[in-house]
Amino acid sequence: MAWKELIGKPAPSVTLPNYDGESYTIEPGKDGIPIALFFYPQSGSYGCTKEACQFRDALAEKEIYKDGRVLVIGISPDPVDKQKIFVERQKLTYPVLSDSDKEHKAQKAYGVGKGMMGLTDYARTTFIIDGKGVVRDALDATMNYGAHSKFVTKWLEKLQKENETGAATEPSSAAKEETQPPTA
């Protein structure tokens, strides 16, 4: 399954070890809070560090991220011990999970492919899951680590507006085009 097929559907629930080795279950829709779920190729690499720190900084500095308005979760194929070093070194304030088992169950559940023409286990992919647990949109941009937090910020603004008006927002035009069946 490709990640595009998840848009508009309930997000999968997955249990993975966090950076302390404890089981952490992603339960979309459980608390009514949107989830920004980002998959990244490698803890400690330049782009992944920048991306992870952009989310850390957004949680600290941007009003739309504060006060439990969003749950940010990072996932990579790195083992728990490497995740722990990464989280502590970068002072990350959100769950960072390890999908390092042979099955890569989170990667498969979310349809995340390999990145950089197969050179990395994960493509850099971010999912926006609304408070009801539905995948609203996703961004697959392995080389553009800076686009992911901006993508999440725009979607949080859209979801906030939806909550105020009651009107649903469509996925981004790129995702919408790719998920629409061809017309004759």
TrEMBL record:
UniProt enzyme class: oxidoreductase
GO molecular function: thioredoxin peroxidase activity
GO annotation (BP), single: cellular response to oxidative stress
Region (Disordered): 162-184
GO cellular component: cytoplasm
Transferase is among the record's keywords: no
Gene3D superfamilies the record matches: Glutaredoxin
UniProt entry keywords in alphabetical sequence: Antioxidant, Disulfide bond, Oxidoreductase, Peroxidase, Redox-active center
Reactions performed catalytically: a hydroperoxide + [thioredoxin]-dithiol = an alcohol + [thioredoxin]-disulfide + H2O
Xref: Pfam families: AhpC-TSA (PF00578)
Domain Thioredoxin span(s) in chain numbering: 5-161
InterPro entries per UniProt: AhpC/TSA, Peroxiredoxin_BCP/PrxQ, Thioredoxin-like_sf, Thioredoxin_domain
EC number: 1.11.1.24
Matches recorded under SUPFAM superfamilies: Thioredoxin-like
Keyword Disulfide bond attributed: yes
Comp. bias intervals (Basic and acidic residues): 175-184
Family: Belongs to the peroxiredoxin family. BCP/PrxQ subfamily.
UniProt-recorded name of the protein: thioredoxin-dependent peroxiredoxin
